[in-house]
């Protein structure tokens, strides 16, 4: 091989190395942008995610191996070989280790990256410094060389310094993203404050509007839509869609969807940290506050159940004077919140309370019970009772319906009207929603799971007759120190409920569930299949299941929680 041919090959390998690194870095940037979006653009949560995936996503073993190779070549081998040979070695190893971008690219994203205006701004904050850094790297490597003089390129460039610069940039992608997020924070705060001011101004212009706010560890969305279903029979209602329960989600609905014809605005108020509900109430102060329960959801960020209870109670303390506070009286921590205010009308729901259920029947066709309004509400009507029949599944939905009925009663919606609305209600999407698919009966309970809802979902599955009963689940998350024990209890309940097959998603995450299932001592043992992803679970389901089988999807973790 002559020198010219050798130089062409060497230069080709070197350019390919650069292309591979640029491609790898761009895919890493897109992937981390996606994770940042799934972590709610919160810097602390993104840092926690990056440290939790330190050697699987943030820093790869390939990064470490390549750095070791560079140092070894530079200090021990470079003087013994030609620059061309060094370029070949650095280029070949770079291509071999970094051409694969499967760790940062998925053809089956559950929730794809959405380039919202905020995401575009964040992307620019990260991409602009990255382009500047790349320019400086290539300037120092190539500018002294005539652009078209490819044959002399390797003679004037240092492949070790070039490789070192490219690998450092690749490693630094998440750091650049975090710095971009930090730099964008003042701008994002200014933009969000503008949306909040606009929402407050609009609400102030509508003094006739009744604002209903719902919070709780779980059941918020189902209760919200039940309230909407009952009220819209007689009133013009604006309600936040899906799980819109953040400041910007609420502002978007108020600013874009609320109009002068609306009589009621129903808001779901979520919280992951202390102060979240106060921030929401500062946007829209409620006339009616509904608190569903206090559980261990988001225990990981709150730290204790008492802190969760204190945060939920903010909806009681922020309630307008002479407003109505509707509380789940069956929850001891929620019940105590009734003592926080003596200048509001407090209504309890539950056993023996102002709004209660009796003669409860739960099955695969739905739920029925007698709804009773005891003579304790401001309506002043005599005790009233009506039979409720609904297609909603699960015992936990009864409490949601009681809370919704209490709100309706406060706004003078009659029990008979509530019963009609309840009979027409459809399940909220991904919350014990029945579907037919490929000959299977699907119970879709894929929204974030909690101990009460997960147990109820398994109970619902066990009521069905006919084919095999199958559950697909990754278990529960964000339960702090209680996560392992709660997932083990969940597994034990699966094992005790005569479920035929449990497909567990995530070999490490589902160990407590597996342990719980195996600890049960009943004659009919639940079969267990452990898979790596939901897509693997669905592939196995097609092989195992037959038409007529019943499949429960209990929880579906976002892409950021995949192992």
What does this 3D model show about the protein?
This protein is an alpha/beta fold and 563 residues long. It is built from 22 helices and 15 strands. Helix 21 links the parallel strand 13 (501-505) and strand 14 (527-531). Helix 1 (3-38) runs parallel beside helix 5 (83-98) and helix 4 (61-77) packs antiparallel against helix 8.
Considering the chains and any ligands shown, give keywords for the structure.
3 domains, 563 residues, 50% helix, UDP-N-acetylmuramoyl-L-alanine:D-glutamate ligase, six-stranded parallel beta sheet, globular, Protein-Tyrosine Phosphatase, Chain A, alpha/beta, 15% strand, six-stranded mixed beta sheet, 22 helices
Summarize this, please?
With 563 residues, this protein is an alpha/beta fold.
Q: Could you tell me how far the N terminus lies from the C terminus, measured between alpha carbons in angstroms? A: 48 Å
Gyration radius, rounded: 29 Å
Could you tell me the strand content as a percent range? 5-15%
Spans of at least 5 consecutive residues with low confidence: 147-156
Summarize the SSE layout with pairings:
Blueprint: H1 3-38, H2 43-52, H3 54-58, H4 61-77, H5 83-98, H6 117-142, H7 153-156, H8 159-171, H9 173-204, E1 210-215, H10 220-231, E2 237-239, H11 247-256, E3 264-268, H12 276-283, E4 288-291, H13 299-302, H14 305-312, H15 314-317, E5 324-328, H16 332-336, E6 345-349, E7 355-363, E8 366-373, E9 384-390, H17 396-410, H18 415-424, E10 433-437, E11 440-445, H19 451-463, E12 469-473, H20 483-496, E13 501-505, H21 511-518, E14 527-531, H22 534-544, E15 550-554
Parallel strand pairs: 1-3, 1-4, 2-3, 4-5, 5-6, 11-15, 12-13, 12-15, 13-14
Antiparallel strand pairs: 7-8, 8-9, 10-11
Helix pairs in contact: 1-5, 1-8, 2-9, 4-5, 4-8, 6-8, 6-9, 9-11, 10-17, 10-18, 19-20, 20-21
